[in-house]
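It is worth pausing here to work through a concrete case rather than discussing structure prediction in the abstract. The textbook approach is simple: state the sequence, then state the predicted structure, then interpret. We follow exactly that order.
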Amino acid sequence: MPIRRLPPETVNRIAAGEVVERPASAIKELVENALDAGSTRIEIQADGGGLARILIADDGHGMAPDQLALAVQRHATSKLEPDDAGDVDLLRIHTLGFRGEALPSIGSVARLTITSRAPGLDAHQITVEGGDQRPVAPAAFPGPHGARVEVRDLFYATPARLKFMKSERAEAMAISEEIKRQAMAHEAVAFTLDLDGRTVLRLPAEHPGDEGRLKRLAALLGRDFEANALLIDQSREGIRLSGYAGLPTYSRGNGAHQYLFVNGRPVRDRLLQGALRGAYADFLARDRHPAAALFLDIDPLFVDVNVHPAKAEVRFRDPALVRGLIVGALRHALAAAGHRASTTVAADALSGFRPHTGVAAFSPSSQTSQGFSGGYSGWTGWDRPAGLAQDLPGLNERSARVEPGDPYALSPKPYSPDAAPAAADIDHPLGAARAQVHGTYIVAQTRDGIVVVDQHAAHERLVYERMKAQMAEGAVTRQALLTPEVVELDPAEADRVIARAEELAQLGLIVEPFGGGAVLVRETPALLGDADVQGLIRDIADDLAEHGAALALSERLGEVCGTMACHGSVRAGRVLSAPEMNALLRQMEATPHSGQCNHGRPTYVELKLQDLEKLFGRR
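Step two, the predicted structure:
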């Protein structure tokens, strides 16, 4: 078959297949044109999922009549400036659109009408139907300048493409999501979106900068995001990362609330998404995802935005620098948050309360071991948690023995419910310990409310952070077992553990082979105290089996240290004395990230006094 040149109409339709995949992508191109035109207000209308009709109206600088005919020609653009020699530098892209393909591509597969007015000139319009261009003609225009682009019967000229479109509802949702992304990136521009005659978004222009950006994000992602977002603003070697990221306890079940922008361009980049996951690796379980809107400003010379027809992906000249900036900036912000937990934790807790108006029969015998600490049948004294004294100051003293069954046994002296907490403790952010319930939860009183702490989750985070600090210093303190412990494993599991003996030693765990299918443990990290060595080794073997042998343990510090920390933590059901509980609270306040455990779950819930008053009808 001989080589022949394709007709211009066919070329345009092929280009349309790359640039205009669906109605949302057509709207994206048109909105980007409006933004490049300096618009401060953009109105979007879509009917029938954008397949029946699309209208984009803006107040940008518009186009002169002699520019309209050129605008619908392929590779005609006002956004690339040639140098004196007539060459164009494709590495210096300062605009959102630059290919000059959007308008001719849309015009080749739909009925396209562009009406525009430049300042001081009369309005004109041009129509293109299925690639057939009509002459430019005078037209009416409602404003002093701007453009109105109307697209009807999208893909009517390529009926086969219509078969691959989703339902009108799905296409409308894709349009809404696209406008949300554009609105996040340009908080100083007002956006209005109407779908089938119904206004679904009306966003006023916000003041440029962090404050206006957060208002725009709150309008799109909800007030909860605003209340639980951390400001991100870090620079490195001329690259700036800004935006907002949610607290770990404000996590989501999927990555739908992760928005990434490069020089104002919404992108879906694996490098950026991977860096975001890496920054939260210490704080979230694998099935939880952080919420974030991150904006990367970088010299166009160091990023290639021309690697994808729809400009949805980018390529960085130094990807390691970009990834390091993102991970470092996010971790810095998370560390600065200290023990802060998301406000949604308290809201979720309050929603679980149900007021009771009836009078329930009360019997003293109903106060069983499910009540306050110490209420255990046959219990004769305090049993200090293993390993706690090595972590928390003031826990070396042995608590006094109390009478069995004392429901208020919290401290060396019998606890009085009328006794006021020490002023020095109650003024701390997490307050003063007042009770331990179900042998698991510490109830503390603050100046303006109460705090409920999960003792196991909280101490697990403290041990984990201490282990990380010792790892960073290269000196994890070890303790020799009085009698080395033999752990029986499956032969394959034992081989995996022994193969990582050197790396485990860096974490303070000394293991040796002990015949077929067994491991001998001689030393453990001192932070773990009297840990369950059998369970610890089996869990580490499971971690190695799940992640395979390709990655070094140092690259999975979170998983391995988290496993160890869990075994060295105060267990649920362990009775604590008042000094022990208060010491745990003080250490939480002094430890970064203590608002969530190693799996991203909250370690405490704070209920304000006004919330309690509302619960009981006092407000």
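Step three, interpretation. The two ends are 84 Å apart (CA to CA). The chain has three domains: 8-79+90-203, 210-337, 368-619.
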